[in-house]
Every structure is written in C-alpha cells, then in structure tokens.
Design brief:
It is built from six helices and six strands, in the order E-H-H-E-E-H-H-E-H-H-E-E. The chain starts with 8 loop residues before the first strand and ends with a strand. The protein is elongated, with a radius of gyration of 19 Å. About 20% of the residues are buried. It is about 40% helix and about 20% strand. The longest helix has 20 residues.
Length: about 180
C-alpha cells in the first residue's frame, strides 16, 4: 500500500468486486485489509455487491412453467462447480467478515431489484451466458448445449419469468 493512501479517506466505497475476489489470487480478507488501511480512524467502508449466490426465479404469473429457466440455472451452477468457481456465499456474509476483521457498527442491507429493471437485467444475464458459451464452452464442444438451454429459457421469460440478481450493501466503521 503506498504511504500516501494510508489513512487518507473518510469513506471507501467499492462495488461489483466479485470477479476480483473470485478470480484473483489476492483473496477477500487481504483485499479488505488493504481497503481498511486507506480509511482514517472512524472512517467507513461501503461495499456493494451483486448477490449471485442467492438467485431466485420470479414470475408474474404462477401458472407459467419454469422448468427451462430452472434447467438453465442448474446447468450454470453445475458448470461453476465443475470449473472450480468459488462459492458466492461470502457476499451474503460481508457484514460478519467486516466484524471478524475489526470493523465496527457493521450492517448488511439487501436491496431488491426495481421491477422496471428486471427484464433488462435478465436479458443482460442471458447475453453474458451466450458470450460465455462462445468464448469458454465452444472450445470444449459444449457451447451449443448452453445456447439451446438459453433459447428455451428465453421463451419462458417472454411470459414473465425472470431471475433478478439483487444487491447486497455492507457497511462498517474503522475504530478511532
């Protein structure tokens, strides 16, 4: 940590660091310790993260079938496990992790996606799955299978099914 950043800020805010934590070799706790070093005594950290580990299917009409969206999510979960993706469970435990690392007054807030953005978010998620199918799965000969699941799940989504990813906001204070 450069000396000019140590205890420089009253507030440190980071968002959407899931890729940094899950893919990098830095790790969650060392990253958090670096962020806390940047805080002045009594300063606050706020960490916003998408809660990928808590995906839930929602529907505007309970009679609409969900089997293809469920199949898609099950396939994605199996792929994540097969490819050694780390668990997302830490996201929902950020306030506890803050406390374990000497932050005070920790809180965790769950922020539901605004209904008017659910379709957009769902489309964005499916587009990212399509890109993943081309870049990662095509070389393994599995891309067509995922794209088929996406196509079937998209049909259900046209009838009001979605998989919104909600936000978690964790806040903690450095001791004075």
């Amino acid at each position: 940590m450069p000396a000019e950043l140590v205890e420089k800020y009253d507030v440190v805010h980071i968002a959407i660091f899931v890729a940094v934590v899950t893919v990098s070799k830095i790790g969650l706790v060392p990253l958090l310790k670096n962020l806390v070093q940047m805080l002045k005594p009594g300063g606050y950290i706020q960490w916003n993260e998408l809660d990928h580990g808590n995906r839930k299917i929602v529907t505007a009409d309970p009679s609409v079938p969900l089997k293809n969206v469920k199949a898609l999510l099950d396939y994605i979960s199996a792929l994540e496990e097969k490819m050694g993706s780390p668990s997302y469970s830490w996201i929902g435990n950020l306030a506890s992790i803050f406390s374990e690392n000497d932050l005070l007054d920790t809180n965790l807030y769950r922020v539901s996606m605004n209904e008017k953005y659910v379709k957009y978010d769902n489309d964005k998620t499916f587009i990212s799955f399509v890109e993943f199918s081309h870049k990662v799965l095509d070389p393994l000969g599995e891309g067509d299978h995922l794209r088929g699941l996406i196509e079937k799940a998209s049909e259900e989504c046209q009838n009001g099914v979605a998989v919104p990813v909600n936000m978690v906001v964790a806040v903690g204070r450095k001791a004075t």
